[in-house]
Structure formats: structure tokens, C-alpha cells
Amino acid sequence: MQRNELPSAADRVHQLKDLAFALLNEVRGLEQDRLLLELSAAQDIYKLDIEKGIKLDDVVSQFEKNIIKHALIITGGNQARAARLLGVKANTLNYKVKIYNLT
């Protein structure tokens, strides 16, 4: 390409595509950072007195429910993005949203 020559349409599309992927990766990273920050802060809230006895299934379910809620808040309710953020398939997240009645 010469000095005064403008980039071709294909070059502009390629540059735009590269920019879009870079922005998506940045957003994904920010979402993951925010989720990890919120979850680490939330752990202080849930002090369990194991010596008095707990039901592990109930505690695990509540923890999972809270993680899913946070992921949905961070992604503005977008289940596909929340699933990617949590590292699960969208169908799995959709199922859990339904069983935990998070809609």
C-alpha cells in the first residue's frame, strides 16, 4: 500500500474484527475479575458453625445459587455470557436457573 492509499474494505473489516475480538476478550476478563472479587468478599458473610452441624447439600446449593446470581448480575442477565463466565454449558446454567428459580 502506498503512502496516500486508503486501506481496502477487506483490510478495514479485518481490523474491525480484530478490534471486536480484543474488546470481547477484555470484557470477559473484567467480568471474571469482578465475579472473583465479589465471591471472595461474599465468603466473609457466610460463616458456618460446622461444630453445630450443617447439611452439606444445602450449603453447596446455596453457594452455587449465589455464584449463579452474581454471574447473572454481572452479565446483565445474559445466560450465555454467564455460562461462559462460570465455565459451564449454557444448557447446564439454564437448568440450574430453573431449579433455583432465579428467573
Write the layout of secondary structure elements.
Blueprint (H helix, E strand, L loop, with lengths): L8 H34 L13 H19 L4 H8 L3 H10 L4
Helix pairs in contact: 1-2, 2-3, 3-4
Explained architecture:
The structure is a single chain. With 103 residues, the chain is mainly α. The protein has a single domain (9-99), classed as Arc Repressor Mutant, subunit A, CATH 1.10.10. The chain has four helices and no strands. It has helices spanning 9-42, 56-74, 79-86, 90-99. α1 (9-42) runs antiparallel to α2, α2 packs across α3 and α3 (79-86) packs across α4. The longest helix is centred in the first third of the chain and has 34 residues, at 9-42. It is elongated and about 75 Å long. The model has no long low-confidence stretch (mean pLDDT 80).
